Amino acid sequence: MLSRRTLGRLAVATLSLAALGAQAQAAKAPDALIKEVSSDVLDAVKADKTIQAGDVRRVTSLVDQKVLPYVDFQRMTASAVGRYWRQATPEQQKRVQDEFKLLLVRTYSGALSQVSAEQSVELKPMRSQPTDDEVVVRTEIRGKGDPIQLDYRLAKAGTSWKIYDVNVLGVWLVENYRNSFAQEIGANGIDGLIAKLAERNKAAASGKS
Questions:
Q1: Residue 123 pairs with which residues in a beta bridge?
Q2: At 153, phi and psi to the nearest 5?
Q3: Which domain holds residue 130?
Q4: 41: helix, strand or coil
Q5: Mean pLDDT throughout 89-93?
Q6: Are 100 and 197 in contact (CB under 8 A)?
Q7: Residue 160 has pLDDT above 60, yes or no
Q8: Residue 203, by phi and psi: left (phi above 0), alpha (psi -120 to 50) or beta?
């Protein structure tokens, strides 16, 4: 029978190995992370007939489960809002972030709804150094028809990587919204932007846009 001291050492060793394993997983390279996430999403699309039929709610649910844990939505929103972000109250920041998140998820989901069963994810060569804290991972979903471009900007967050911008079909989403957000805030303030985003999301949910 093992002594308590031996059991204690075994327990410590086991916990140390588990911690190292968790760190190794968290420190996964950005292109490997995107490849894994993209492949998981694509496999789920291929296995779900309702998604293949264009059910946006199902696609949105899939993105929520498979993609959002790796996204820094606060950075995305702050970048899109620009200099006005610091002027907003914490409540306004939260409301803008919630509405912008819904808008982005719908846009990304719209691209995924075009995916068909025979398609696969291909990574393009990365142009980065091991010491870089920010990188761009470029991918294409290939199969029949034209390839679907989905690129990702990621930043290092501790030992892991987080997505902070997405290029859907040639358009960087955060950059695309920055100018329109600035115009709306300049005309109607932060609350005006929140109302505009909410109106847009409501219209999209009802199929009017």
A1: 139
A2: -100, 130
A3: 27-205
A4: helix
A5: 96
A6: yes
A7: yes
A8: alpha
Q: How far apart are CA 31 and CA 36, in angstroms?
A: 9
Number of domains in the chain: 1
Contacts (Cβ under 8 Å, ≥6 apart) of 16:
none
Does any domain span residue 9?
Answer: no
Mean pLDDT (whole number) for 78-103: 93
pLDDT at 5: 41
- Kindly calculate the radius of gyration of the chain based on its CA atoms and give it in whole angstroms: 21
83: CB partners within 8 A, 6+ apart: none
- The verdict on residue 78 lying in a domain is yes
In a domain, 200, yes or no: yes
Using CA of residue 139, residue 140, residue 141, residue 143, what is the dihedral sign? Answer: negative
The pLDDT, as a whole number, for residue 158 is 87
Give the CATH number for residue 154.
3.10.450.710
- Predicted pLDDT at 139: 92
CA distance 187 to 196: 12
Backbone angles phi, psi at 118, to 5 degrees: -90, 5
